[in-house]
Specification:
alpha/beta; Rossmann fold; 2 domains; three-stranded parallel β-sheet; three-stranded antiparallel β-sheet; 11 helices; globular; binds glutamic acid
């Protein structure tokens, strides 16, 4: 069994991250498996070396050790590009120049409002209809969207997390209607969260993806991409989210619950385990 913790170095780790990391780490250790670390730093604007350094420091302080070298997404841009080139050659992508406002305007049918998928507004198809793709052309420097009508297939994945335990079926028809032509490469990044995560989980040999329930809907996209790229589909464990006293999920900007703050206030790693409802280390 190989699982991972994949934080973005765009802010301090908080109690929610600690929960996710400890859960994955403890599952790996209990199963005699591996716990890997991946730094998801494709957002060059928001990622900062000091946050990355703080991640290593916080994890070590929590008593978590990871196996093997750390994978950093910013060092894998050529891998993402190769995958995009393959998909482009297979005529599964199209360049999109729509702004958010263009999409909102084109998507809102008067009676139904704007159709929302896990990745925001379901793309109304404006640039796909323009049919700008010519085989043999180089990959354009633009936002690239996936042609979901050609990409999706009926498939499934196994979930072992408490809220959705069981086999989940994904239908092609639902992916087209409710998810649509998602962005696989942002213009300024040359990739996207979805594409990178799928390629990296496969490259790291991840067999169990452990992450928050807020990403449950995104998993259908990831499994679709795995099938398209002929990559194995791991088992998934979407865990519950740590919430504040108002029931709101913690966000990066919740510095109030940053691990570093608890540390300076004198909390121990076992205190953190107790706070997130996990058993202290033996
Ligand atoms: N990097 C994502 C985050 O910080 C998680 C990625 C994943 O588990 O797929 O929330």
């Amino acid at each position: 069994m190989i699982t991972r913790f994949a934080p973005s170095p765009t802010g301090p780790l908080h109690l929610g991250h600690a929960y996710s990391a400890i859960l994955a780490h403890d599952m790996a250790r209990a199963a005699g498996g591996k716990f890997l670390l991946r730094i998801e730093d494709i957002d060059r604007q928001r990622s900062k070396p000091e946050w990355e350094a703080q991640i290593y420091d916080d994890l070590r302080w929590l008593g978590l050790s990871w196996d093997g070298p750390v994978m950093r997404q910013s060092e894998r841009l050529n891998i993402y590009r190769q995958a995009l080139e393959t998909l482009w050659e297979r005529d599964l992508l199209f360049a999109c120049s729509c702004s958010r406002r263009d999409i909102e305007a084109a998507a809102s049918a008067p009676q139904e409002g704007v159709p929302l998928g896990p990745d925001g507004i379901v793309y109304p198809g404006t640039c796909r209809e323009r049919g700008a793709h010519h085989p043999g052309q180089p990959l354009p420097q633009a936002a690239l969207r996936l042609r979901m009508d050609r990409a999706a297939c009926d498939c499934s994945f196994e979930e072992i997390g408490p809220a959705h335990r069981g086999i989940h079926h994904i239908t092609r028809e639902r992916m087209i209607r409710e998810v649509g032509d998602i962005v696989l490469a942002r213009r300024e990044m040359g990739t996207s969260y979805h594409l990178s995560v799928v390629l990296d989980d496969a490259a790291q040999g991840v067999t169990l993806v452990t992450r928050g329930e807020d990403l449950f809907e995104a998993t259908a996209i990831h499994v679709t991409l795995q099938k398209l790229l002929e990559l194995p589909t791991p088992t998934y464990c979407h865990h519950d989210l740590i919430r504040d006293e108002h029931g709101k999920r913690l966000a990066k900007r919740d510095d109030a619950r940053a691990l570093a703050k608890y540390r300076t206030e004198g909390a121990t790693p076992d205190d953190i385990r107790r706070m997130v409802g996990l058993t202290p280390l033996a």
